[in-house]
Amino acid sequence: MSNDVKLIDFAAERDKRIHDLRDRKLEEMRNAFEQALPLPKGKKSKNKPKKR
Asked: Has this prediction a pTM greater than 0.90?
């Protein structure tokens, strides 16, 4: 019998898989919000100073 048996920690593997699923859902939500409410790209508007 060989002592090179690899044990699989199912709890750790499940945690990794759940983490990947949540990351994918979060990325999908970010993309959806970015399409719905795009952020302004770098340009800052130059406002005239208010006259007092």
From this structure: no
